[in-house]
Structures are given as structure tokens and as C-alpha cells.
Amino acid sequence: MVLNEDEIKKYLAAGEIAKSVKKDSRKWIKGGELLLDLCEKVEKRIEELGGAPAFPCNICIDEVAAHFTPPPGFSGTVPPEGLVKIDFGVHVDGYIVDTAFTIPLSPRDREIVEVAENSLLKVSEILKAGVKISQVGEIVERSVRSRGFRVIRNLTGHEIDRFNLHKGLSIPNIKTFSVEKFRKDMVVAIEPFITYADGSGEVGEIENTYIYRFKHLSIDYTGEFSNIVKKLHNSFKTLPFCERWVLNRFGDIGKESFKKALEYSRKNLTFYPVLVERNRKKVAQAEDTFLVLEDSAINLTSEQV
Q1: CATH code of residue 130
Q2: Active-site annotation, residues
Q3: Residue 117 sits in which domain range?
Q4: pTM
Q5: What is the pLDDT of residues 251-301, one digit of tens each?
Q6: How far apart are CA 227 and CA 230, in angstroms?
């Protein structure tokens, strides 16, 4: 895959929006803030800057690692000493960047955030075409273990394509023996997840699911609720979506009909259950999206660049 000048400009534009939103939203994370308000504030800011959310803003607290976005009417708040992860994506005409950061509201969690961010920084220093993808996991694992923490081994980074947040290539955060290499013009998200030494180093699913995605750009669903399914598919394509987006966007779709439409079209959908550290230990996350070049990589989403 070779990106043309227009495609690169769109990735860069999405990245600039993400940087601005990340800088602003860091200031919003305070004890007592409604999680629903924070997510909607992030998504609104993306739109104000000329982008579109690539997926529902995730806000995951403490042992919750991924895939939580507040449902409509959710009244949960940021705990006063929470370890708060904000994970969001921006797209411009389907060209996506994905980024995340962690805010420690307790001084006891500052080091785990520093270790996550430092491991991401170390990876960024070696990224370029020709580098083995296995080197990412080796660097992250070595960096994290040297500080006395554990990597979440069953969460990975990923390749990104137009309207496709997870193209198929996984980028492990632990040492592997893959010989696959990064290629020029690849767009990849690198995202270390780490936990404390007494954590299991793995996440597991819980029953709650709030985020969904259509598997394909075209679907042949003609059953009950087909009008709702087609409306959702036309709106979100293959990008993830959530119930609150649907209820806010479509006044003629109610909560019950939305749930039934999901169930009836299950074979066309991917469901994303909430992921929690198996030992219920806190998790920190750091993530940036990179455009791989011949001799380096552009960090599209880092505020430090």
C-alpha cells in the first residue's frame, strides 16, 4: 500500500485534531466528573475542530482496561483517586488516528503511568520500515519488567486503514518470534497496557457490552428490523458505534428497537465486551498512531511532537 499526498494530508489533519483534543481533555479529568459528560465533551470537541469520532470515546477506570463507554443516562463519576484512561479516535474522511492517555488521580499511581508512557516512547524511537514487528513487544516488555510492572499480554496494538480501525495486523506488547516487518506507509497504533506486579497480566471479558461494529462495508440483511440495521450501517459503515450515538442521532429509533436490531443482525456485527484485568488490578495505557516512513515514523498524535 502506497499513500498519496491527499491521504497523508488527511492522516496529518486527523492527528492535529487528536493532539488538540488530548491536550484539552487532560484538564477535564477530575474526581466527581460524570463519565458520560467527559465522553461527550471529547466527542464534541473532535467535531468542533472539523473531525469525526472514529469510535465512541472510551473512559476506563482502574481495573477496567478497554471498551467501556457510558450508556445513555449513566450516572457514574470519576472516583477521587481513580486511574483514568481516555481512549479516543479521530477520522477525516475515514482516515483514522487512535490515541489514549492515563491520568493518575492518586500519587500512588504516577509511576505506572510514567512506565507506560516511557515504553511507548522507546518504541517510537525505533519505528521505521524494515523493523520487525516483534521488536515492539520485546522493547515494551523489557522496559516494563525492569521497573517492576507487568504487561497486559492479551491486548495489542494494530494496523489502521481507511474506515478500518483494526485492519488485521496485531502488534504484541510482549516478546514474540514473528518475522513480519513494518512497511513504508503503514499506519499503526502502538498501545502498551500495563498493570502492577500482582496483576495477572491478562484481561477478561465481562457481560456488559456497549460498543458494536459492522463487519463488512456491505451487508445482505433483510430480516426483521432491516430498516434500522440499514440506517445504522449507512451511518457508521465499519466504524464502531454505541447506543447513545444511535439514540442521539436517530429520533425514530428507541432503546428497545435498537437492542432488538442488534440481536437480529448479530451475524453482521462484532460485539466489544468490556475488558477487565483478571486479578482486578489497576491498568495504565498509553497509545499513539504512527505513519511509518522509510527511515523513521511520524507520530501523528503525540502532544510532544
Answers
A1: 3.90.230.10
A2: 87, 98, 158, 166, 191, 287
A3: 5-205+274-299
A4: 0.95
A5: 889 999 999 999 988 999 999 999 999 999 999 999 999 999 999 999 999
A6: 5
